[in-house]
Amino acid sequence: MYSIFFLGLSLAAxxxxxxxxxxxxxxxxxxxxxxxxxxxxxxxxxLSGVLPEKEVLSGFSSSSVVVVGVLFIVIxxxxxxxxxxxxxxxxxxxxxxxxxxxxxxMGTVAALSAILSNTTVVALFVQIVKRWAGKLGVAPSKLLxxxxxxxxxxxxxxLIGTPPNLIIAGxxxxxxxxxxxxxxxTVPGLVCLAVGILSMLAMRRLLPVRKSPDEEFSQTQEYTxxxxxxxxxxxxxxxxxxxxxxxxxxxxxxxxxxxxxxxxSPVLPDEPIMGGDRLVYSGKIEELLQIREEFGLVNxxxxxxxxxxxxxxxxxxxxYIMPGCELIGKPVSRTHFERDHQIxxxxxxxxxxxxxxxxxxxxxxxxxxxxxxxxxxxANTPIRGLQFFDNQxxxxxxxxxxxxxxxxxxxxxxxxxxxxxxxxxxxxAAIAMLVFRCCTPGxxxxxxxxxxxxxxxxxxxxxxxxxxxxxxxxxxEGVMQVCNGKPLxxxxxxxxxxxxxxxxxxxxxxxxxFFPIVYHSxxxxxxxxxxxxxSLMIAVSSSFATPIGSPTHLLVYGPGGYRFTDFLKxxxxxxxxxxxxxxxxxxxxxxx
Length: 592
Hints:
Structural class: alpha+beta
Number of helices: 25
Strand content: 5-15%
Distance between the termini: 41 Å
CATH topology of the domain at 219-299: Alpha-Beta Plaits
Largest sheet: 5 strands, antiparallel
């Protein structure tokens, strides 16, 4: 049935176009997680017959997808042996001025992002940069945007630094049979990074001074209080709900501690009250004290929750709402989120300001900061849609720190010198991390971000559909007609369009969608596709104008207390500058 043509494209091509368009809309306007959206695309392309079963499953067996999964294990070894923490502690230091701090921060982050996932690097750096900013007397918001920008620019310097590079390199290998060198993007990436750092210094006045939401969370004893139920209290034997202590206008009951130290959290309304119970409420102190007076409670010996003194059974953790979180747009009180994950929402902040209303009754948004009461170690257990930043795990430096660093170095050398393909060298590195116990199998498994792997697999399938249905060829011919077959103009249009699209969807998806179009455009003009693909790699990782242009932007959006317009002010000129630098340096190194 796909022999039917309309406007020069087959029915299969039009189905693919509609599916990709629907994917764009879902990623921009809905709360559907990226991995679910991409899995839906794979299902539609398979069930509709656009791609045969073998092609539909090709994404899961793609070498680039496997490489990403294996690299998660390598990164786990580096994190748990303290390699990254050691670098952060000894490299940042104490610069003498704010411009010097920008240079040192962006250079360090870019170097790490060149060999590690830039998302991982930013997640590890956020809290360190905030403490570093306090030490330097600078608002964290003046450093967190440069942190995110540097991770993207550093990531393009090697094939493994950012996901789009791996996807594009993998597709190129499948299409041409040739492999892109590990350091093919290094010189162009370094030039763009240098230009980016200089531009950030020139535009530093555009970076806002915002109040970090964590400042509202730094003194938890100001809004968390523990009250004791006397042995002769008249409500003993009644349930929390019946006594009126569950739903109070003055505070949220986040925990019930029995006289025998048994801890109940979240607290269910049908729990009976017993003498000696301790009730932990969150809210404004002056209002919480009204609970004590109205219900005849007394002060406990000391507050359970403070920053410096946390109960050994429960603790407070800071997290940020990420895209796809099931809490977005709905109050937590109307969900089973707390019960399912054994956590309690204590407080929330938005754009640097603590929300004074009950956090369980507000509709949370992407980028909101939340204070969560949970069991120790639970923040290291992934929860979809939440990104924890206050990892309190103490790293012990030792022989394993050196071993994991050497394993990483060996992986890079083997791959860059073409002694082994990247897949084999990364696999050996992951095995070595486990053999030498740089990380445990459990830690390695938890480190794998399965949602990212699903997005990767879906990206490969979409790219295959765009290519096999003739869409890539048709678009390539259209671009050449518009640009009169001028290679430089074609490259410019492709990069500009890719940077625009990446402002709204993930750079991984953009790279996969644009690869077949860029590749066929270059081939149709009789040009080597490599320069076009190098410029595409840089372009899709150079979207700075919106907080949704990159996962790293979202990671700093909440902690920095930023507004959407903050990224526009600094991001638009940065995007233009990097585009020009990209086109110039790629054409100098890889002449068309």
